[in-house]
Amino acid sequence: MAVRNQAQRSPSEKRAKLTLTDAHLEEVARLFGMLAESSRLKLLRALLERPMTVSELIEATGMKQGNVSKHLSTLLLGGFVGRTREGNFVRYGIVDPTVASMCMLMCSRIESQARRRVKQFG
Q: Is the model's pTM score more than 0.70?
């Protein structure tokens, strides 16, 4: 079995070697916890299309104004979204590009699993 040096390793092998302290893992768990709410994921899905105001997010998600505001606060706290003032309006948008990557990665995984189940069980 050949041993490969760091330069020969694939990007996923290099990432697997990251040294994460317990404090890092606590922060990862905190951030994933912020995303572990379907209402927040609905907001992120809408914001993947374009930045929106609270009114536009209410229309896009069917959520109530209070819920939209509450969940946007959490997403702001986590650094997933940001806001800009435009006159009387505040527009929210995704500021962390990894959010789109994470969403696409998980959606792809779910689709692959569904296809395997259909194939397996007919």
A: yes
